[in-house]
Amino acid sequence: MPPAAKARRGELGQFWRTFRRNQLACVGAVVVGVLVVVAILAPVLAPWDPNRPDMKRILESPSGKHWFGTDQIGRDVFSRLLFGSRISLAVGFVSVGIATLIGILLGAAAGYHGGIVDAAIMRLVDLMLVFPRFFLLLAVLAFLKPSIWTIMAVIGMTGWMGVTRLVRAEFLALREREFVIWSESIGAGALRVIFKHILPNALAPVLVAMTLGIPAAILTESGLSFLGLGVQPPYATWGNILNDGKDLITYAWWLTLYPGLAILITVLSYNLLGEGIRDALDPRLRQSAVGRVLRLGR
Amino acid sequence: MRRARIVSLLALALLIALASLLVVGNSGRRIAVAADEPSANEKPAYGDTFVQATIGDITGLIPNITSDAPSHAVSGLIYDGLVQTDKDLNWIPSMAESWQFSKDCLSLTFKLRKDVKWHDGKPFTAEDVHFTYKTMMNPKTPTAYRDDFELVRDVQVLDPYTVRVIYSQPYAKALGSWGTAMLPKHLLAKYVEEGKLREAPQNTTSPIGTGPYKFQEWKSGEKVVLVANKDYYVQGRPYLGRVVYRIIPSQATIFLELKAKGVDMADLTAIQYARQTDYAAFKQDYNKYRYSANRYTYFGFNLKDPRFADKRVRQAFAYAINKPELIEGVVMGLAREATGPYRPGTWAYTDKVKRYPYDPAKARQLLAAAGWTDRNGDGILRNKDGQPFSFTIRTNQGNEERKKLAELIQQRLKEIGIQTDIQTIEWAAFLKEYIKQKRFEVIILGWGTGIDPDQYPIWHSSQMGPDQLNQISYANPEVDALLEKGRTSCIQKDRVATYHRIQEILAEDQPLIFLYFNDALPAVSSRVRGIKPEPSGITYNFIDWFVPKALQRYTSG
Amino acid sequence: MALFALRRLVLAIPLLIGITFISFLVIQLAPGGPFDYIRGEESGQDSKLIERLNKEYGLDQPVYVQYWRWLIRIGRLDFGRSFQPDAKPVLTKIGERLPITLFLNFIQMIIIVALAIPIGVASATRQYSLFDKVTTVFVFIGFATPDFWLALLLMILFGVQLDWLPISGLRSLNYEYMTFWRQQIDFLSHLVLPVTVVAFGGLAGLSRYMRQSMLEVVRQDYVQTARAKGLPEPVVIGKHALRNALLPVVTILGLSLPGLIGGSVIIESIFAIPGMGQLMVQSVFSRDYPVIMGNLVIVATLTLLANLFADLAYGMVDPRIRFAGRRGRRRR
Q1: Do residues B319 and B359 make contact, with C-beta atoms less than 8 angstroms apart?
Q2: A278, pLDDT greater than 60
Q3: Exposure class string for A191-225: b at 16+ Cβ within 10 A, else e
Q4: What is the pLDDT of residue B286?
Q5: Do A53 and B407 touch (CB under 8 A)?
Q6: Which of A27, B124, C30, C322 is the most exposed place for a label (fewest CB within 10 A)?
Q7: Is residue C221 within 8 angstroms of chain B, CB to CB?
Q8: Residue B213's closest CA among B184, B240, B246?
Q9: What is the ipTM of this complex?
Q10: Among candidates A127, A223, A264 on the partner chain, residue whose Cβ is nearest the Cβ of C266
Q11: A-chain residues within 8 Å CB-CB of B325?
């Protein structure tokens, strides 16, 4: 049931109008945008090589030359933060991407088929939720060779349960709706029904979950760094810069202040943005608007 | 005239200034920086609580079956051995009042003190010595220190206070091995027989030793509390009434506790020692000490890897690595360059060995001789098949110092055209997956060397098994012979020459690059007196430490 | 309803066994064994012991044999002994740690609930007001600040600079010599910083959930009707809206109960609190299989019970839900 183009634009417009009214969410969106640009332009913006030690400039406090000071082996903290933003954001994006993919596939299967498939998948979800997440992370990290990709994969593979539940719930609600029943009645295959009709309509809450999942992944990475299980040297992430600086917090405050603030601002902005999107997709509008919003974006 | 006087006055002032600068500079270089020595009118006093911060919990209270530093530190105060080390690391009497070697070194007879009592009041006798030996040799005892007694043929109780040990061949570490904690036969015999020593209550809730402190409580993950043994056989000691080990798993927290005077003793990191503790308040509250620890850090090659089997390649690496830079950069200069496996200042050490000052040109030369050159002008060394020289440096996770070493060395190697990756791997996985299976190229790790220079397990070619310590697979027949000779001689003078030769060969071979001996950097509350820093450390006379009555903080201790 | 509960309980047993089997497999397959620590970095240590101990504890057997043995022992409620040199029974080790973790988490939860629900309700009823914005930013700052960083900053401020609060640990060293009331004050003062850090971090989750739930309810017909009838706003919100908005929040709280025994490694190591988080991490790092498994069994059992309890409670509060075979409610 293809909606009229006009109506589509109207709903998109409504989304924007609601969203725009939410000043916090707009600020969040702008900051997130800036961060992505900064991450992409890091090699251009960074005044120094982030991994090059300089023994003559150990732990210098912030100055005109090194804006955010230097670390224990004389590397420029500002440049490391810039490059770190790439890894940190990549960790956020990729791990959430993985989690979402797994979550959508399992959630869709469970919600569409119901019955034994549903029961099995939901038991798996229960099982995963029962494990302390940290234990899962450790166990998987022990299997795989440590690298940036491992960290991403691991965070993603231990964080899909929420999305699964979400997608399943949407499916349960949507599969009884007229347009799905209609599609099925004219003989559309299961996959076609799932991907063409139900999924796009279920994507709104997933989008919100993703926006909120990215900052959570960034925080998880910094927690892993605390345990010494974060991204490998010499790659900088905000988490491991912060962690490396913690023993020097009373002396070289710049080693913790800047990465700490970077994490804080980023996580805060993503959360405001995510909430803004959710609010704008008010439950009443959700069913009609979101799926089309997303389909428009394609 | 007046002018000349002013000039000379100025000159004098300048001289004084210079002199004082020299003095200041000099005092900064002293090995141990003690702020104030106890003045004569500060009489040793009993009492007070001494709080020590430790980063890890203990794992048990019978030191013969634990193998971690915190457990050994705590047990060291609860238990005594027959002998102990003095400030110069010589063996001196402890529970044995004297001993006698036979001429052939095959028999060692201890005369025990008659006034030693276990903490439960029972007398300590030769039977306990015999029991301890039997415990160590019992196959069911999970001890990692059996090697020390492997060469003992028999332990004879001649009378309640005389023990004779018979060796099957002369053993250099014979005397020192009896510094092992003595265990009470009357309490543990049953558990040893059943092979359940670990489960004995003496291992968790009620250890009984003969040492200067009695056990009071162990709150898992929180603290271990010891109280002074008033009946200790060394009259009048110990002074400190209570010793508390507080378990604080975060280095950052330990330092904040120091700043807030919550702990009386903690090990500083190099950067804390060098940069963060030089303000007046800290100097007033704490004395900092610095001495070389029996532990060195190394850059080790897997000698089974054909690239590193070539001595020229290893020597090239030695030239390419800038040790002074590493020491300055990683530990703020608070370490001693290593030339071999022995700490400078010990009797086995010699400095007359081949040195490798930083010299990248020479490194390139040696690598070229070994077939590694930049063949296409991209700055990367390749062999004649065009394969680039690249490998992974691995070290254990959670050791910031080694991580920084890896990063600095990576940079230096890059400059001579060698590409490296760094991997830090969690300890248990690292041992099992990489070290045991010898699936590594280069590792950065450390060795604690103990008091005796015998390092047979590390260097002897017979020790290459998966669980054994010669993980780099070093095999040199001459070193093998020297190691065997060194450990079966009981005359120190003969051994000196043996170990000097071993160092010469190791320096030439560079089976691993000896980076540096780390410094131990403890800070101790300035209210504690009686500390006499020596090159070997400060804790050797712990039982003499005291807090003057007026300065005691915990009155109820 | 009793039937429903019983059915769920019976179903939980195979799930529990499944969980333990997978966990067992995972920790056994993870590289590194429990006795490898014996090979340290000291030249004087004899590493033949590793092999001997592996044999003694049956670690040279195939995994399924080991698992079967373990399962049979667990069936007799024998959790075994730790592989560490102290060889304490697993239950003793957990028993040493559990009370403090439970206590801390309980206090944290009460504080979070006491703050988050009013914040959530207030910001929902005044959506997009200044108050809403300020609290939104406030709770998200709490969520967004890396906890160990915040912990250190607070320790420096209140422990070192101002010297108002103890920095770490649970009790002062002269605790035994204090009067009863001094002891209580001493203990509580040690808890202030860790509880603050955790509560600040956890505020966002619940308060945003509350806000969301409230916003949805306020738009419902019966609330609109109540308004139209001219009931005063506090009555509308307090009586009609709040009660319904609390429903999903109760579920969330129920589901988070098993988390109470988990404990946070980061907070515990920074504040030197000997809790379950540290025990779990240390046993994972040292491959102390019996302790890891014991921990997981207890956590898993509690989680399953809490799930059941949450479902039952939900059903009791909300009569629309009947305990049919299939779960009727939407889970988010």
Answers
A1: yes
A2: yes
A3: eebbeebbbbbbbbbbbbbbbbbbbbbbbbbbbbb
A4: 95
A5: yes
A6: C322
A7: no
A8: B240
A9: 0.86
A10: A223
A11: 55
Q: Whole-model pTM? A: 0.86
Which residues, including other chains, have CB under 8 Å from residue A147's CB and lie 6 or more apart? A232
Q: For residue B166, which amino acid is it?
A: I
The tokens for B277 are 């503790």
Report the residue of chain C nearest B296, measured CA to CA. C41
Share of chain C above pLDDT 90, in %: 31
**Spatial CA neighbour of B342 closest among B555, B210, B506:** B506
Q: In this complex, which of A22, A135, A173 lies closest to C128 when CB atoms are compared?
A: A22
Using the Cβ of B251 and the Cβ atoms of chain C, whether some distance falls under 8 Å is answered with no
A231: its two tokens: 């991204």
Q: Which residues pair with B266 in a beta bridge?
A: B523
Contact between chains at B428 and C31 (C-beta distance less than 8 A): yes
**Does the pLDDT of residue C331 top 70, yes or no?**
no
Question: Which of B 184-203 lie inside 8 A of C, CB atoms?
Answer: 198-199, 203
Which of B93-107, B469-483, C254-268 has the least mean pLDDT? C254-268
Do B264 and B52 form a contact (C-beta atoms < 8 A)? yes
The rounded percent of chain A whose pLDDT value lies above 70 is: 82
Cα B227 from Cα B120, distance rounded (Å): 14
Give the model confidence (pLDDT) of B458-497 as tens digits.
999 999 988 889 999 999 999 999 999 999 888 888 899 9
pLDDT classification of A287: cutoffs 50, 70, 90: very low
Q: Is the pLDDT of residue B374 over 80?
A: yes
> Which strands make up the sheet holding B442-448, listed edge to edge?
B335-337, B512-520, B291-301, B442-448, B390-396, B419-425
How far, in Å, are B360, C58, C130, C139, C210 from residue C123 at the CA level?
Answer: 66, 59, 9, 12, 9
Are the beta carbons of B257 and C36 separated by less than 8 Å?
no
Instruction: Using CB atoms within 10 Å of the CB of residue C6, give its burial: 0 to 12 exposed, 13 to 18 middle, 19+ buried.
Output: exposed
How many CA atoms lie within 13 Å of C95's alpha carbon, on the beta-carbon side? Answer: 6
**pLDDT tens digits, one per residue of A112-135:** 887 888 888 887 887 777 666 766
The answer to whether A103 touches A166, Cβ cutoff 8 Å, is yes
Region B25-29: mean pLDDT is: 34
DSSP line for C275-305: -HHHHHHHHHHTT-HHHHHHHHHHHHHHHHH
Maximum alpha-carbon separation in chain A: 76
Residue of C140, C161, C215 to mutate, testing the A interface (most A Cβ within 10 Å of its Cβ): C140
Buried b (16+ CB within 10 A) or exposed e, B44-61: bbbbbbbbbbbbebbbbb
Residue C118 predicted with pLDDT over 80: yes
